Amino acid sequence: MSGIEVGTVCIKTRGREAGSKVVVVDFDAKSQFAIIDGPKIKRRKCNLRHLFPTTQKIGIKKNSEKKEIAELLK
After folding, report:
1. Would you say 6 and 60 are in contact if contact means Cβ atoms under 8 Å apart?
2. Is there a contact between 39 and 69 (Cβ–Cβ < 8 Å)?
3. In 3D, which of 51, 41, 65 has the Cα closest to residue 5?
4. Strand order in the sheet with 21-27
5. What pLDDT does residue 8 have?
6. How do residues 23-63 score in pLDDT, each as one tens digit?
7. Which among 22, 52, 53, 59 is most buried, taking Cβ atoms within 10 Å?
8. All structural domains of the chain with their residue ranges
9. pTM score, two decimals?
10. Contact of 34 with 4, CB cutoff 8 Å
């Protein structure tokens, strides 16, 4: 899946949140979508083509809460 795993910090490249830092929380089993979340972004599906993975990775479990993600990104 192009090197993107749960906990990978990415930057959105398209849409209204372009340039925002997000974390991959889960994957949609049926298609090429990831479930993302971030401090300024609601949890939602996002096409993997619209994400640029960084070298950062935070230690979260699948479907972690928003508070935990926001603290680890600081």
Report:
1. yes
2. yes
3. 51
4. 41-47, 33-38, 21-27, 8-12, 51-57
5. 93
6. 999 998 778 899 999 888 899 999 999 999 999 999 888 87
7. 22
8. 8-61
9. 0.84
10. yes
- Please state, in angstroms and rounded to a whole number, the distance separating the CA atoms of residues 8 and 16: 21
Read off φ and ψ for residue 50, nearest 5 degrees: -95, 10
50: tokens are: 């619209």
Strand partners, 5: none
Find all residues with CB under 8 Å of 34, minimum gap 6, and list them: 4, 24, 25, 26, 27, 28, 45, 46, 48, 51
SS3 73: helix
